[in-house]
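In keeping with the milestone schedule agreed at the kick-off meeting, the structural modelling team has produced records for the first pair of proteins. Each record is given below as a sequence line and a structure-token line. The laboratory manager (R.T.) confirmed that both were archived under the project's standard naming scheme.
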Amino acid sequence: ETIEETIRFATDINPHTIQVSLAAPYPGTFLYKQAVENGWLDAEHAELVDTSGVQIAPLHYPHLSHTEIFDNVETFYRRFYFRAPKIASIVNEMVRSPQMMKRRLREGVEFFQFLRERHHAA
């Protein structure tokens, strides 16, 4: 429910671009202490990346599993960027500027590589 509200909020305010990240509870931080105290993090298995270097979701909540959090990063990106108005805006930028065309094509390749790596990690 909270994730859905956040996705709706992002699409409503419609920033030009968006960055979605997983919370990283580093030892010694307030988030780490809070997560351990509340049972959101198993301190014995608190890795932040998997063996191939892909960020994982170490936190979980009573109503939200590690897997749901991890999977919803991709959902967020897809629902934000794969909307007709957002695609039209990006294409319009690309048509008007050769430099922007190169940049957006490079970013598009990087984005699809990111999605593929996440599927291999999942």
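The second protein of the pair:
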Amino acid sequence: MFKLGFFSSGNTTNRCVANRDKPLKDSFGIFKISEDGNLVVMNGMKVIIWTSSTSHVVTSSIAQLRGGNLVLLDNSKNRNIIWLSYQHPSDTFLPKMKIPINSVKTGEKTGLRSWKSPLDPNYGNFSTSITAILPQLLIWKGRNLYWQSGQWNGQVFIGIKSMRSVHTGGYNVVDDEEGTVYLTGLVERKEPTRFVLDSSGNLVQSYWDGIDRIWKFPWSAIENDCDVYGTCGPFGSCNSLYSPICSCLRWFEPKNIDEWEKGNWTSGCVRRKSLQCDQEKNKTSTKDGFLKMGYMKVPDFAEWLPPKLEDECRSQCLNHPGEIRLITTLAFFVVCVGVYLTWFWMSRQRGKIWFQFKRNNQLNGKKICLGEIISNVGLDELPIFKFEVLAMSANQFHDNNKLGQGGFGLVYKGVLADGVEIAVKRLSTVSGQGMEEFMNEVLLISRVQHRNLVRLLGCCIEKEEKMLIYEYLPNKSLDVFLFAFLFYLMQKLKLLWMLDLSKRLHIIEGIIGRGLLYLHRDSRIKIIHRDLKPSNILLDNDFNPKISDFGMARIFKCNQDQAETRKVAGTYGYMAPEYAIKGTFSEKSDVFSFGVLLLEIMSGQKVACFWNEEISLSLLGYAWELWKENGLSNFIDQVIWDPNFEIVLTKCIQIGLLCVQEFARDRPTVSNVLSMFSSEVISLPTPLKPAFANFYDDNGVGSVNYVTLTNLDAR
């Protein structure tokens, strides 16, 4: 599995590089044991460019252990190890490795150091370390904190929400009681596992899938912009589900409103009114109180008090106003945390942080009492199902009940005791993105109700199990009807229920005229779906379409036009160019996806699989060329082609081409698209050349982040 040798830049399989800052200038490298007992690397001129720098003892040999650890052995009878590569990691953390810190005796600390770029092993800008007191793993960008894991509670790092289900076997923290704390790698997984600090500063876990023979990536430290430390500054709250992602805590306002509105949130927020901690000095009867905030990660500089219950924590903080004021001044705020918070975080994912606030602040004309709880998670609004009830309904999640499969996990059909049929979406325990999608769907679908949106019936959170329960739709998803080989056989047999033109137009109207318009315009919250595609359009018995899978959706403010993200998530072929390339998304991004979907519905061709030997055009480019040449009869699915309806069919293709134009400013809005469909006026704008018009090779059919369902049967 491991081997030792010289390599050229670009070989990213190297896990430990000795002379990373001094590469050889020629091909005459020498690796040997020197006369003083050290391992050395020399160039062709026999100049030492790297040495193990051990004590000067007689050594006899080196060995590479099974786990990849290169060791230098002395010449004694016991063959003692005097140097090992695991104590000098590069950018990779492997099983049995240790990252120590000694804050008492030696001050020793070791960590990972990123490559300068994916092809350059020289020292990069990012490094890791652990803290000795209340251990936590940190990623640094230069001297600035970039990411934190949250404190170790004896089992997991409490700031990593998916650690319990994703990589419990990845870390352990050990204190040798002599001042040294070790972050160690466990070997509970049978398959090879590694953690790599990449050149962008992200710590990524991967494991080797022996069946598929590929590396899979169940978890990464930075999954969205909110994972970057201090993104929203002091007293700022970051929520990746919203756009913009930063907001001030209640009763706070931006410190620099101009920079805040430009998207630079690092200056954070300030209180609208000062605290009234010292009651004797201000001679007022008002008292400061606390506000609970859910799903907040404790800052690195927070002061931790001894474990206490909520009431004790509140009392201690309020009865020591001088201490609170000092800590507030130096560290922005004090955090009262104990066994209660840690248990709550891990058992219900609802850990809370207490912030001090003024009681005379108003909310809806009423004064807020102590203990006001802000619960934006949405779990309380949904029925909570027990695991055993769902397991029984789905025949213990038997394969015969399986409806679909994707990176998020599996979907099963279930039947409750009262006979109600349900679809159970079960979060995979190896899906890091799945947890974020799970919370996204809970937050969004529970707040919107529409006949053309799939209905969320409830959820289940028990230990490592996390599931979403939807209405069961016995008909197929749209992609099965459009692209399944078996269905094409059925079409040739001209079965009564085949997807004829009237049904396709009905589906198009339901998607754009009802579902998407509701999300963009009519809902109480504006939602951008970001992953509109045939497999996410479910069909009921009457072929009414229902938009599903809101795992990648984002909430916009009513007056907001667009947003940006550093993590592009979606499905190849359906992503707008500005989103795929720059991470910019808007209502027009969904319009682009709808345009691709519309062209697929009318042609019966899948955008990712389309290929014509005579041309080098994508499905979009092929439609555009035929539209210019008045040859759309060659593009439209022959099952629905009818010269009597040529005007209607041509109109659909033209609208689809308008939706997939390269620049967002040229595309119509959802409202404009609906007007085009409903208007009797034949004249429409002339579409410009679409994005991605030329053929591109894309064998993948799943989503970029392996979250959405790609194989779906009836549900």
